Amino acid sequence: MAKVFDRVAIDSWLRDEIVQKFPPGGLGDIKLGSPCIVNPGETAVFVRSGEALGTFEPGTHVLTTANVPFLTNLLERGLFGGKNVFTADVYYVKTTDLTMKWGTSQPIIIEHFNRSPGASAIIGNGTYVVKVKDPWRFLKAFDAFRDSVRLPQLKDRPDPMMGVMMQDKISELAQAKNLGPAQLQSFSQDLNDLLVGLLQQDFDAVGLSLVDFNIRMGLHPNSLEVVTNMGYGTSYVQKQQADAFVAAAENPSGGNLGEIGFGAMGMAAMQNLQNQQGQQRQQQAPPPPQAAPQPAASSGGGDMPDVMTPQQAADILQVSPEDVIAAIEAGDLKARKIGSAYRISKANMEAFLAG
Q: pTM (2 decimals)?
């Protein structure tokens, strides 16, 4: 038989506790007219059959049908456990600031196709501060319907989520702001502020507010090697360009967001050099047999990798990576999206070339 409670409150919290259920250990009947005490820094959510009945902010609330609408609704639906009692789970959620430590266990790959070598490997560590702003959404997102939820248990969910969010959002910034290794080498406060604004949308979805963000991001010391091994920027000229970008980052004036356009002439010069070398390779290549010219669809098939990045596909097609992505998004070139990156199979590329 369920115990009848004439007072609803949480009297003490563990230091790192975020959620407590009342009553703990099972169901309980709550007597009508009982006080529901919500202390500062708490929110109480009444739940029945997986549905939120109501939320109480800090204060003392007398549980009567006269001032609690959901009790009237329960009465009309005949869901009272007795004449003067009703059954509900009450989840108390801390709404104070929660400080989380975070760091990259593996480099985050940031794609920037308009800047050589096409991607950078980023690492970072530090802390960020969140607080619960939508308790019901938070409880559902983190499956926190338990007697007690503590901070280490909560971190199991946002830590990997944070890595995915950072990869997506920094890649968006890199594309939108034309960032390359030089700018990512020294992650400026301007970039940090922009990143916070983008990340808040994802925290909203799980009922959290991003209060503070102190994650120090920077280029992996072996970034070029990491991204080259993944298929980005495999030409010697691209490696030289990337080295030049990293060297430029050591210039104190090279990493400021306000100077992202700096070095455009150098970029143009290096691009011209790459184009010239490409023309030289074409001139040096032996002409195809006159009697049996190869169709365009198979011009690069022999050297085509089984799986390609948009950059590699662009090199084969002699277009920009943006043109390749536009063809993918238009449905003309079939590709698979993994996270925020596209990958194109050899079969799909050959089908595209064949028309």
A: 0.61
